[in-house]
Amino acid sequence: MVGTAVLAGGTLLATPGSALADPQEGLGHETKPGQPYRGNPQPERDWLGSYVVNGQQVWCVQFAFTAPDSGEEYRPGDELKTKWGEKIPDDVAANISYLLLRYGTTQDADKAAALAHLLHSWTSAPRNAGDLNPAKGFKDIAYDVDGHLAKLPEGAKNAVESLRAEAVENRGPWDAALTAPEEPQTIGQAAEWKLTVERAGDKGVGDVPVKLNVTDAEVEGLGEDGTVTTPEDGSPLALKVTPTGPNPKITGELSAPADRPYVQQAVNQPDTTQRVVSTGGEKQLTVEDATTAVTAPGVVQVGKLDAESQAGIAGVALRVTAPDGKPALRQDGSELVGPDGQPAVVTTGADGTVSVPGLKTPQDVVITEVAPAKGYEESFDAANPPSVAGKLEPGQTLTLSLTNKANTPTVPIQIPAGDPGVTAGETVEFGEMSLLGAGALAVAVATVLGGWALRRRIGEGGQQ
């Protein structure tokens, strides 16, 4: 995992008034025997690894200078150069910055020894064969690169090659970006944001921790410390972000390898003590993006029912509006209108219902009958058409219903076949007639038939 070693941008200070202590070695390996040079205080061994200064793990350069005491006081120094005061090539400086950032807090002895070896190889390598002359003193002796590598354990040797290759592959400069979805999100519904950390050539860098600060949203898998880590293969990290408010926003910060590493120089013994290399993480990158979020859309479902049977009435035209008569709003905020630009009209289906989905929430919706269905004309008042209203909540279905009374039933009048002028077996409809008219006609027919029967009986009885 990428870590920020403890010396980034800081200063190592001994406790005022305290005496210096002996050097304290951290993690790494010793190489035996030590490299020969004039005045070597420990000819039996050399140390390749970290040191502990004021309780912190540090890394040193300037091979053969005195190791730092555990209470050494350090002040920020200059850009890291070779032991001979020469500028380090840009690519090598980038390698150093990356390795300090990535392994400055390592707890692996092989990697610690490998890092120390590479630092000395890049800053104190011999310029010519004479720089390895054992007659030289600590200020002038070069680091025997091949000799020290040969004395390292096999695991550390392997780590040297893997760290070197990794540095070339992943060194800075880095670029980081956070991208929110193009479309507005829906509150309460997760969508994918993309976090990328890339090096030169648009190649992704893996295993990079990024500290996030989240507003109006929740991020799935976010640790308690607010940190996420890019995938090991360097692919973009997909963040599942669920808005909790209207303005989701995420900012992030990560440590990237500095363009060039800097050193911190010992104050107590500036001309004899090894310099401490600052970490590669002084360069902080930030990422940020934001979007908007809307509430979940809602659905209005309307049923048109017969007042007596409660059966659905098909083919009823209904207008959908806001309470002020303006069009209702779709989820994207646009007006729900028909081809004529007026508030949309929907028609009930065979079951007497119709649904209007994708509406913005929350909003008040009014459903008004535009024209009656066939057979329900009598109860329809065009000046005051039936309507119903309700409030549509986020993600909900608002169920509304309207009832209509059927027209007053009518009774058809039928005359039996055989009446003068009517063919036998035919039924004649006289159209619609009220129940009162039908009764009067029945009385009149009964009266006529009764009188005819009475006259017949009189004729048959002679003089009665």
Automatic annotation (TrEMBL):
The chain crosses the membrane at residues 433-454. It comes from the Bacteria. Residues 17-43 are annotated as: Disordered. Keywords: Membrane, Signal, Transmembrane, Transmembrane helix. Residues 1-21 form the signal peptide. The keyword Signal applies. This is Prealbumin-like fold domain-containing protein.
